[in-house]
Design brief:
- By secondary structure, this protein is α+β, with helices and mostly antiparallel strands.
- 26% of the residues lie in helices and 28% in strands.
Length: 117
């Protein structure tokens, strides 16, 4: 096998494993999906949310350098005594981790987070 062929296979494998986070922006809601490309993300989202008009939504890629700026938290728990604890809590809800922490070892398409209550 020649060098060019080996390098082409390397690029194919490298890019196949490069997942991204896609942001779905509605007028009153934001949701993030981890997927290999926008087509997969949109198909997953439509399957998850059912009959929604995706044309009324903006879909964009969340830059990887912003993955540590966004975080997920457990909306099902609330500790009033932790409202002022901005390091480990968000408005009294325990922070689970950044988007980067959440998807670090994931290989499958998944819903990362939602602003929907």
């Amino acid at each position: 096998m020649n060098y060019r062929c080996c390098y082409a296979k390397y690029l194919l494998i490298k890019n196949k494993n490069k997942m991204k986070i896609f942001e779905f922006i509605w007028s009153d809601l934001k949701e993030w999906v981890y997927a290999s490309d926008s087509d997969v993300a949109i198909a997953f989202y439509l399957d998850l949310r059912g009959n929604v008009d995706i044309d009324k939504c903006v879909v964009c890629t969340l830059p990887e350098d912003q993955w540590t700026e966004h975080f997920t938290y457990d909306a099902s728990t609330f500790d009033e005594g932790q409202i002022d604890n901005e390091e480990d809590y968000f408005d009294g809800h325990k922070i689970l981790g950044t988007f980067k922490d959440l998807v670090e070892n994931e290989t499958d398409t998944m819903l990362v987070a939602s602003t929907q209550n």
